[in-house]
Specification:
Layout (H helix, E strand, L loop, with lengths): L5 H12 L4 E5 L6 H16 L3 E6 L16 E3 L4 H9 L1 E7 L11 H5 L4 E6 L10 E4 L6 H10 L9 H14 L11 H11 L4 H9 L4 H13 L1 E4 L4 E6 L1 H6 L22 E7 L4 E7 L5 H8 L3 E2 L3 E6 L3 H22 L2
Parallel strand pairs: 1-2, 1-4, 2-3, 4-5, 5-6, 8-9
Antiparallel strand pairs: 7-8, 9-10, 10-12, 11-12
Helix pairs in contact: 2-5, 2-6, 5-6, 6-7, 6-8
The protein binds guanosine-5'-monophosphate (5GP) and manganese (II) ion.
The site of manganese (II) ion has 6 residues, from loops.
Length: about 350
């Protein structure tokens, strides 16, 4: 695939072939569909090719991904730090997927930093950090899953991409593009999907497993937040929503229950910038979404200790929910011109 430097692909292939111990695959904290789809897809392909592979996730990931091939192999660092450390000690190659900075690993950062084997990064975020021996990073890909597919296809491991791997990779592409609603301006994404389709994936079943898998509590929380926790700022083409710890308790919140909430205000006529603030034990999790040229990663980088993509970004704010919301309202005027330029 001409979009990826063949020399880099060769180095990727060689680093894998040089591994004689385990290869450990690592997604970012609170992994999403793309992080898990990439990790599990690559896990299946490398296993098929005869390698020994472990997966260590910094934290747990949503239940609605727990049907994916290999999901029961994932070691959760936050619950099993010793088992995770052992997996690292038994490995001579580490592959980081779907993140660009070590800070995205949370408490698992030291384990990755001190890893003695070779390290590879495969990612599609802007500004990849310099913490691995090899960096495969390209923001023109919709998702890390699409990038992994494109890379592997150019290697001798291509024949090992089976239906299970294709299903995981498709899940990554589907979730990172909002079911092909955004990040899909590059036709290559659809070419990759066509190839995954030839491998026999069932898109409808995958969609259903991911999106028709919510609890009644989650639906009720969504309705509650839309009614009681949303503020619209028409003059800034913006909207925000928040979820308190008490709300979470009242609706028996589990990881992933707020997934997708941040996108909803974007369906209001004229709104192109949306924010979601979720109160966590030690910080406020911030999520941003936008439409068009308005770059929300600049907002999260500058004001919310975060990063991300132009139209999907997030961060962690170490203060109260009220302070996070006030901060958001205070910075809107600074971005007013840029927001207005993006309104079509
Ligand atoms: P989400 O809003 O779905 O949690 O995150 C959207 C995107 O924002 C992610 O794919 C990731 O690129 C970025 N992001 C979310 N949270 C953080 C964070 O705490 N730090 C950084 N650097 N990026 C984040
Ligand atoms: Mn991604």
């Amino acid at each position: 695939m001409e979009r990826i430097d063949i020399e880099i692909v060769k180095r990727f292939e060689q680093l894998i072939k040089n591994s004689s111990k385990f290869i450990v695959l690592v997604p970012h904290t609170n992994p999403d569909g793309d992080a898990m789809g990439s990790v599990l897809g690559l896990w299946r392909i490398l296993q098929n090719a005869g390698f020994k592979v472990k997966i260590v996730s910094p934290t747990k990931y949503p239940e609605f991904y727990h049907w994916m091939d290999g999901h029961d192999q994932v070691i959760n660092f936050s619950h099993h730090p010793k088992q995770s450390a052992r997996a690292f000690a038994e490995s001579d190659l580490l592959i980081c997927l779907d993140f660009n900075q070590l800070s995205r690993l949370g408490d698992m950062k030291p384990l990755v930093e001190s890893f003695e084997g070779k390290k590879i990064l495969v990612d599609h975020h802007p500004n990849p950090g310099n913490f691995t021996d090899l960096v495969i990073s390209d923001i023109t890909f919709s998702s890390t899953a699409e990038l992994i597919f494109a890379v592997l296809q150019s290697t001798e491991f291509a024949p090992y991409i089976d239906r299970n791997a294709a299903t995981s990779l498709f899940t990554g592409i589907m979730t990172d593009t909002g079911s092909f609603a955004f990040n899909v301006s590059n036709p290559n994404t659809f070419e990759v999907v066509a190839q995954l389709t030839r491998l026999g994936i069932d898109q409808q079943e995958i969609y259903s497993k991911v999106y028709d898998n919510y609890s009644a509590d989650r639906m009720r929380l969504m309705g509650f937040c839309l009614s009681n926790r949303m503020t619209v700022y028409p003059e800034y083409h913006a909207a925000s929503m928040y979820i308190t710890r008490e709300d979470q308790k009242a609706f028996h919140f589990v990881t992933g229950d707020n997934e997708g909430f941040v996108n909803m205000p974007l369906s209001i006529n004229g709104i192109i910038f949306s924010a979601l603030f979720t109160e966590k034990e030690k910080y406020i999790k911030v999520s941003f979404r936008s439409k068009g040229d308005f770059a929300v990663n600049e907002v999260s980088e500058k004001y919310f200790n975060g990063g991300g993509h132009r139209n999907a970004a997030g961060g962690e704010y170490f203060a109260s929910l009220q302070e996070a919301m006030t901060q958001f309202e205070n910075i809107l005027p600074e971005f007013e011109d840029r927001i207005k330029q993006s309104v079509k």
